[in-house]
Amino acid sequence: MLTGSCLCGGVHYQYDGEISEIALCHCGQCRKAQGSAFATNAPLLSAHFQITQGETLLKTFYSSAIKKRVFCGNCGSPLYSQRDDKPEVLRLRIGTLDSPITATPSYHIYCNSKAEWWQINDDLPKFRTTN
Ligand SMILES: [Zn+2]
Ligand SMILES: [Zn+2]
């Protein structure tokens, strides 16, 4: 069981499973949403993910017609994204995890919109858009 929470501690979640894949997403939307060079996103099975505290604090922003980004409305921590046409999967922002994990980053996506000030210096697979 993995657990995580937002910065203010108002929202807590748990995941009954393992993190097996970590995408480093350099798309412009993720950069804005995280305020960072890239996002660290792990696909999870929605059915095994549960908000255990603070569900009423969650806010949702649709960054495209069918893709929502869910964050804590109190502190702003980004928690996950989810597509309306693929509700069985959510993409957790793993910087919010409290449990240790053994997985390491899997690949870079949306390298075509990477911040010009960030250099990718590893040998992971790099995809121009999605993988
Ligand atoms: Zn919060
Ligand atoms: Zn992205």
CATH topology: Metal Binding Protein, Guanine Nucleotide Exchange Factor, Chain A
CATH class: Mainly Beta
| Total number of beta strands | 10
- How much of the sequence lies in strands comes to 35-45%
| First-last Cα distance | 28 Å
Bound compounds: zinc ion
Task: Identify the notable features of this structure and list them briefly.
1 helix, globular, Metal Binding Protein, Guanine Nucleotide Exchange Factor, Chain A, mainly beta, 131 residues, three-stranded antiparallel β-sheet, 5% helix, seven-stranded mixed β-sheet, binds zinc ion
Structural notes for this entry:
With 131 residues, the protein is mainly beta. The chain has a single domain, classed as Beta Complex (Metal Binding Protein, Guanine Nucleotide Exchange Factor, Chain A). The protein is built from 1 helix and 10 strands, in the order E-E-E-H-E-E-E-E-E-E-E. It has one helix at 28-34; strands at 2-5, 12-15, 23-25, 39-45, 49-53, 58-62, 67-72, 78-83, 89-93, 107-109. The strands form 2 sheets. It has a 7-stranded mixed beta sheet with strand order 6-7-8-9-4-3-10. Strands 1-2-5 form a 3-stranded antiparallel beta sheet, with no helix packed on it. Strand 1 (2-5) and strand 2 form a beta hairpin. Bound molecules: zinc ion (2 copies). The site of one zinc ion has 6 residues, from helix 1. One zinc ion (ZN) binds next to loops.
